[in-house]
Amino acid sequence: MVSKVRGAFTGVAGTVTVAEDVNASTVTVDIDPASIDTRDTGRDEHLRTADFLDAEAFPTITYASTGLRRDGGDWVLDGDLTIKGVSHPVRLAVEFLGGASDPWGGSRLGFSAKGELDREDWGLTWNQALETGGVLVAKKVTLEIEAELIQQ
Predict the structure, then answer these.
(1) Rounded to a whole number, what is the distance in angstroms from the first to the last CA of the chain?
(2) What angle do CA 11, 67, 93 make, to 5 degrees?
(3) Cβ contacts of 139 within 8 Å, gap of 6 or more
(4) Cα angle at 82 between 52 and 40, to 5 degrees?
(5) Distance from the Cα of residue 76 to its chain's centroid
(6) How far apart are CA 112 and CA 133, in angstroms?
(7) What is the rounded distance in angstroms from the CA atom of residue 47 to the CA atom of residue 26?
(8) Backbone angles phi and psi of 10, in degrees to 5
(9) CATH domain 8-150 topology
(10) Which residues contact 106 (CB under 8 A, 6 or more apart)?
(11) pTM, 2 dp
């Protein structure tokens, strides 16, 4: 591992239901693994294969919240992340960025979220040894989410 690789999924859709009791709010997200974009075509093609996301056999990655709570002054969203048919809990630290009316008469809310996971928990174990020692791909993945919600 020599440097960090940043990427994004461009095919993302979800629903956030904000409950009257905010702690009862829910989040569901569907991600198209074939939409991965790390700005390197060869790497993206490899990430779509069975070595990693197996986008052909598993065309959807999902996240479904199981709870929202305060932890001191911070918000924490717990949920189940499913990749390649394997589900594990993932905790996200959530930050509310604010709300505003848009120019078209709609209402929008902004959020950021961050979490970490061990990719091998989902069977994403491919790697390659480096001749200088170590391996090509780290086990730890940092999730950084920027979301803008539009009231329906």
Answers:
(1) 44
(2) 65
(3) 118, 119, 120
(4) 35
(5) 15
(6) 36
(7) 29
(8) -90, -15
(9) Lipocalin (2.40.128)
(10) 150, 151
(11) 0.92
HEC-encoded secondary structure of the chain? CCCCCCCEECCEEEEEECCCCHHHCEEEEEECHHHEECCCHHHHHHHHCCCCCCCCCCCCEEEEEEEEEEECCEEEEEEEEEECCEEEEEEEEEEEEEEEECCCCCEEEEEEEEEEEEHHHHCCCCCCECCCCCECCCCEEEEEEEEEEECC
Phi/psi for 112 (5° steps) reads -120, 150
Alpha-carbon radius of gyration of the chain: 17
**Tokens 């009316």 found at:** 101
- Among residues 96, 93, 70, the alpha carbon closest in space to that of 142 is found at 93
The answer to whether 79 and 27 have CB atoms below 8 angstroms apart is: yes
Q: In the numeric block, which tokens belong to residue 129? A: 């040894």
Q: Where are the domains of the chain?
A: 8-150
Residue-level pLDDT, tens digit, the chain, 152 residues = 568 899 999 999 999 998 999 999 999 999 999 999 999 999 999 999 999 999 999 999 999 999 999 999 899 999 999 999 999 999 999 999 999 999 998 999 999 999 999 999 999 999 999 888 888 999 999 999 999 999 88
